[in-house]
Structure formats: C-alpha cells, structure tokens
Amino acid sequence: MNDLFDKMKKDAGPLGLHLKRAHGYFAFPKLEGELGNRMIFRGKEKIVWSLNNYLGMVNHPIARKIDGESAQKYGLGNPMGSRMMSGNTALHEELERVLADFVSREDAMVLNFGYQGVMSCIDALVSRHDVIVYDAQAHACLVDGVRLHIGYSYTYKHNDITDCEKQLKRATAMAQKTGGGILVITEGVYGMSGTQGKLREIVALKNKYDFRLLIDDAHGFGSMGPNGAGTDEAQDCQEDVDLYFSTFVKSMGSIGAFIAGPQDVINYLRYNVRSQIYAKSLPIAVVDGMLTRMEMLKNLPELREKLWHIVNRLQNGLREKGFDIGATNSPVTPIYMKGGLPEATNMVMDIRENYNIFCSVVVYPVIPKGEIIFRIIPTAAHTDEDVDLTLKAFEETKKKLDNGDYKADEIPDMSEAGYLHKTVA
Question: Aminotransferase class I/classII large domain spans which residues (predicted)?
C-alpha cells in the first residue's frame, strides 16, 4: 500500500507540470492596483485583457459606492446561517424577484457561488432514473455536476445538432427503460472559443423529443441580447429554455449566481440544493450591491454599447491583420496560433515585458500539442488606445513567432525566485 501523498510529491498533475518554473508568472500571477484595463504586474503597468469584467462594473463609481455603503451598514457576516434556517432576508427575496423578471422567468433562486451552485442544481434536478445529455465542451462545473449523477449520461459533439439528436435518441430509449426524464445541458456562450451554444436548434428538437433544457449563461448574462438578458434573449428563444443559470461574476463585478425557471421547479430547488441548504447565505452586502447593479444593467445601456464598441474594434482589427479568431460571436476573443510550449511562453514574456500587454494563454495539456490560444476579454473599461496598442503588439510578435524567434529547448524560469534572481543579476 502507498502513502496517499506519495503521488503528490512526484508531480503536481498535468496543469502543474511546470510549477517550479511557471508559478507566479504563467500560473498564479499577481495583478495589483485598481481593478480595470490597466494594472500592475511585477512592478510595471500592463494593459489587462484577462478580467471577465464585461460591463466595467467591478470598479464603476456607482458599484463601488454601494459596495462600501452596504459593507459599512451590514458587515460581511450578515446574515448568519443558511437561507433555509436563519439566513433569509427581504433583500435576498427582492433580488430573486428582480432577476426572474429581468430574464423573463416565473421565479429565481440566488446561489452563493456559481461553480458549486450549478453542480448542486444538476444533482438536485436528476435522480438515478433520469438521463443527461450535454455538450462535449461544457464548462468544468457542468461536467462535475454530471459526475454527481448516478444514472446515465450522454455527450454530444460540441455544437453538433446532428450528434445532439443522436444522443437524444439514445437518451429517450434509456429513459423509457428507467422511467425517468431527460435533461439537456449546454452553455449560452462558451468561454474559451466565444461561440454561442446553438440554443434555437436545440429547442427545435423539442418538437421530436421530450426533454428539459438547462443553459449555463455565465458569459452571456449582461452582455448578450438587446437588453443584456442573455444569449437566449439574443437568440429569441427564452420561452423554450426551461432553466437559466448565470453568475454575478462576469458582467456584474460581484460574486454569487442564480438559477431561474418555473416557480414549482425553483421551489423544489430551494428545498433540495445541498450546497445552499448546508451553507451560509450570501452576505446581504453583496445582495444589496447586486440590486444596484441590476438597476445599472437596466438603466445604463451605454455600458453594453461601450463593451460592443471595444469588441468590434478589436475583433475586426485582428481579422483585418489576418489573425484566426475562430467563429466567436460574443465578446470572448480567442487568437489561435501554432507553436510548442517554449514558443508560447517566450511569446507571452515578450508581450508582457516589452509590449506591456497582459492576457491569458492556453497550451497543452488543456489543448492539443502544437496549438496556442491567446484568450482576450474585451470590456467596457477598455479604450481605443488599449485596442491599438494590443493589435500592434500581436502583429509584431506574430511575425517573430513565424520567424522562429521564440524557439527554445525548455520554458524559461519565470517563477518568483528565478525572476528575482535574474533581476538582481
């Protein structure tokens, strides 16, 4: 028998493969200063494209003011206990009414956190007799929710409606045997590629199959649709999406989440979602801040207009310069390139150190070897100058990548110890 910790001493898993050389720079970097389009990284100001702050609310004066006032008024410990036992308030219920109305549903339930919230919702929605059908590129929180399910589940190829129907046929046959129902899960906007889930095509399958649809619209709430009510509003299919989930993190600059749908289903979830029943209620200061943010979302359309101005300027500029940004039809902007891990890390360093641009990069083992994805998140806080400087940086560094200037045998040591040693030397 082995000691449980033995494997952890050998390595930190696939994502921690280069921990000793990458920690603090490529992984777990520390951005400092005021949250926004310009922040400090290792002592130098950078243009930051890594914050899911779509509407710029995280540091908006109105949001900052209510956050400060609410924290002073209520503190961060109020209320104590779970919603079911002692942590319910009139403000929690008011926020749920506001959210339900905004996304055109009968009722809504506020959740403490997005990741654990949607996991627990999936767990509560399905029994061992029910069957789940979900997109192959579903977010980790959805996949983990499916893992909690002790019944059958089927995966369909990403945004492939033909394969989705194939899996629905399989699910229907299985549900007829078990006596259960079917839950289909997709995302509104996929956070890596920026493509929208094919919601209209999926709901059209309801004409042939009996299922309920849950969408995770973390990247769509606030940013998509004529009113910012989400990707299902943008695709004009709100009535056919049975359950709508989103977080308060991406567009609202806060914390927490919600799920909305038919009142009887939401009431069922209130009494059966374990991560809420057995956890402390969302602090009332956060709830109060979210009520103000919802007013901002409804009454300040210029925030969404500014976001899309930056999105279109950036994405059009990248396409004009010949960059491959895939089929994104949302603010999420991936830039696809070819190269190995050392090339990717050297390019990141050049962009950060010499062009003062900070954005996220995705490489193997998250994506196949030889692929590089730079992931840029435009926000209402960015400026035209930010876009121009970023386009120039990528144009110049792409030429270096194509010329082989970033080739190396191994990734550089950019851990804090290695970086400080080089700086001192």
Answer: 45-393
pLDDT of residue 417: 56
CA–CA separation, 393 and 133 (whole Å): 42
**C-alpha span between 233 and 346 (Å, rounded):** 41
Shortest CA distance to 331 belongs to which of 350, 351, 303?
303
Contact (Cβ atoms closer than 8 angstroms) between residue 71 and residue 381: no
Q: 391-420 as b/e, with b when 16 or more CB fall inside 10 Å?
A: bebbeebbeebeeeebeeeebbebbeebee
Q: How far apart are CA 147 and CA 157, in angstroms?
A: 18
For 328, residues 6+ apart whose C-beta sits below 8 A from its C-beta are: 193, 194, 195, 315, 334
Provide DSSP, 113-141.
Answer: -HHHHHHHHHHHH--TT-EEEEETT--HH
Other beta carbons within 10 Å of 158: 18
Quote the CATH superfamily of domain 14-54+301-403: Aspartate Aminotransferase, domain 1 (3.90.1150.10)
| Domain 61-299 indexed as CATH 3.40.640.10 | yes
Cα 151 from chain centroid? 27
CB 215 within 8 A of CB 222: no
Structure tokens belonging to residue 158: 């990403």
Are 246 and 224 in contact by the 8 Å Cβ rule? The answer is no
- Tell me 59's DSSP state: G
Structure tokens that stand for 177 in this block: 């045997």
Angle between helices 140-147 and 114-125 (to 10 degrees): 40
Instruction: Enumerate residue ranges in the chain where pLDDT < 70.
Output: 14-17, 365, 409, 411, 414-425
Phi first, then psi: give them for residue 210, nearest 5 degrees.
-100, 105
| Residue 276: CA count within 13 A, CB half-sphere | 32
Give the separation between CA 411 and CA 198, rounded to whole angstroms. 39
> What ranges in 259-300 are assigned the alpha helix state H?
263-270, 274-277, 284-299
Position 424 scores a pLDDT of: 35
As given in the structure block, the two tokens for residue 169 are: 């046929």
Q: What's the confidence (pLDDT) of residue 135? A: 97
> Are the C-beta atoms of residues 52 and 249 closer than 8 Å to each other?
yes
Question: What is the Cβ-side half-sphere exposure of residue 157, based on CA atoms within 13 angstroms?
Answer: 5
pTM for this model (two decimals) = 0.93
Return the bridge partners of 358, or none.
48
Query: Which residue spans of the chain are classified as CATH 3.40.640.10?
Result: 61-299
Q: What pLDDT is attached to residue 340?
A: 79
